[in-house]
Amino acid sequence: MTTDSGELRVGTRGATNANVSAAALQHVHMTYQARRGENVLALKDVSLDILPKEFVTIIGPSGCGKSTLIKIIAGLVRPSSGEVLLGSSEVTGPSADVGLVFQQPVLLPWRNVSKNVSLPLEVLDSAKNDRRAAVEQLLDLVGLGKYGKHYPHELSGGMQQRVSIARALVHDPDVLLMDEPFGALDALTRDQMSFELMRIWSERSKTVVFVTHSIPEAILLADRVVVMSKSPGEIAEIIDIELPRPRRNEMVNTPEFGAYVQRARTLLNAETTAH
Amino acid sequence: MAQKVTTAVGSVERKQVPARRRFSQRPIDFLTTFAAIVAAIALWHFAITYFEVESYLFPAPLPVLNALIEGLSDGSLLTNGWVTLSEVLIGFSFGSLLAITLAVLITRWRFVERTFYPFIVAFQTVPKIALAPLVITWMGFGQTSKMLMAGLLALFPVLVNTITGLKSVEQDQLDLMRALQATDWQIFRYVRLPRALPYMFAGLEIAIVFSVIGAIVGEFVGAKAGLGYLIQSSQATLDATTTVAVLVVLSVMGLVLHRIVIFAKSRLVFWLRTDDGAVVGV
Predict the structure, then answer these.
(1) What range(s) does the ABC transmembrane type-1 domain occupy (chain B) (predicted)?
(2) pTM to 2 decimals?
């Protein structure tokens, strides 16, 4: 993928947003009952349109409801009010249109790497021959082609997370939901995984919603960064990232990148000191 | 399990698994253990002769060895040993199977849990061996009563551990399956059951030892054959030598049975193996 396609991505956004979005949240509120019976407002009036093939990162202080947001889009949690759309249909429960990646790899330790990746296909009951081909293709994509027979405990944390990314993609969902997927990795592996993910994303052209704690990570990956505020969790601002693609490590040192970081940091600081 | 050494992809390092070291330490460990056993037997011998302990109180090692050889060659230890072993095996198998089935039903349906759990909790505190006289009265002096005792003692450790295991699924694993619209049966088959295996085996390990206790206690209360019966009849003639010989056979039996369970565990729960072969319950 070249810079051109990156610009194309940015360019198409304005043109297509009128009708079809990959995922959309409209006035989503989420309250839940705390232990003492009081209602806690976790998400307040969150509205967000995510375009097809867009890479959106969500950043915010811990406890701002980022993970809840992911679970709502995945259909695992029902919002208290508001509407959630995947493609053009309303989300009423889990659907095979999303792939989930958690902070922990959540691999099944009794299944080898291939078997872990094929799990969604088995659950969705797809044909056996298709399964093998899809699994092999994805293991190659995440650079673990030779590791199919290995068991999760024989792999490093970064490799385990690659397996979980392959698993999330194997049933070819439109939207990839990632909840702090690199949060448990060391800094070096984390950087490497960011670029791996962008490569996979450009090859597979998925819509990605990516939750993170790290400001540079959020900016490096994203077309748009959604900055959230804490209690109640609401969208403070959405920053368009106009850096060219493919993104490179050196970009982190450019003044543009620095400006984005500064802006996100100011927003987050304002949100955390306000309370 | 074979640890293949493969080159890492890119700069991602493969996790180090120190598999080799464990085996190189084995011979020394084995020698130490062997020396300790020899020393203990020697100490036993000298203590008996030095304090002039009467043989009806406790025998010296050599007479015990003689009794062992005699009992094995005239077949009395073997036939009675087989009686006890078959009671243990059948009781353990049925008790564990029933326990696992009950655990599955209890964790699957709330109303089964509500119906049965109070009884299980109440029954757990009853010392099960105290039921032996009743069981003998019901089932008679034959092997069935001992199998029932063995099964009864095996039941609870397996039941309680398997229930814990089946309930121990992580939220993330559930979310993963639910996001794929997995059915309850799929969640059970793909996640709950394999995840419960380490817990189940923790229960089985206790259960196999308990089963031997159950069968022996059953034989104490009333039997026509078996190692427990042999202990009782030898005590009636103050023949402590035979008693200890039977104890040796019993401990060997218990050890072998326990080892078999551990071996099965290491095969079936291979993913939780630590350096010393112990299983960590995650």
Answers:
(1) 77-261
(2) 0.80
